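Sequence in, structure out. Go.
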Amino acid sequence: MKLYYKPGACSLASHIILKEIGHDFEIESVETDKQLTESGADFSKINPKGYVPALRIEEDEILTEGAVVLQYLADQNPEAGLAPVPGTLERTRLQEYLNYTSTELHKAFGPFFSLTASDEDKQSAKENVGRKLDYFESIFNDGRKYLLGDKFSVADAYLFVVSSWAIPTGIGLDKWPGLAEFSTRIAGRESVRDAMRAEGLLN
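Output:
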């Protein structure tokens, strides 16, 4: 199994979950702007969508889309307890959080990573990101430790990675103390530290 990733991108969530599971796997970084992998392979032939993550399961089997990769890994390793059983309300809630993170929060950060976005675009994006963070802050208002309550799941890994982009973009998390506390909690996990070190994000 090989994970194609870009340091600090949403693929970090899949990397964290692979570390949580503890199985052997390989990683290979991708320069998405050049569509080249670390070994010089044409990434567009690996994932025609052109972005990470891409998880090579077998030679001719590659999964893409972060929320899908995360759930696949959880379902293939149920002993890790990283996702509720399919078909339950709890699993549907997990998918709700994954989808909102992917389609709303993740997407809202887009102008910050665009070479053509204006200052006005980025200001609008800042306000948009803030509204999405408001939603997640409301979830943690009941004192829960993780999105699903007291148990870490793949949705937490995804939210941790995407919400962390608030720091380098200058938005910060000061306005969202519950989310900031959540982020600090997740950052302390061994799997998170290991994945971040492997991507050159920690010493």
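Check: DSSP finds eight helices and five strands in the chain. The first strand starts at residue 2 and ends at 5.
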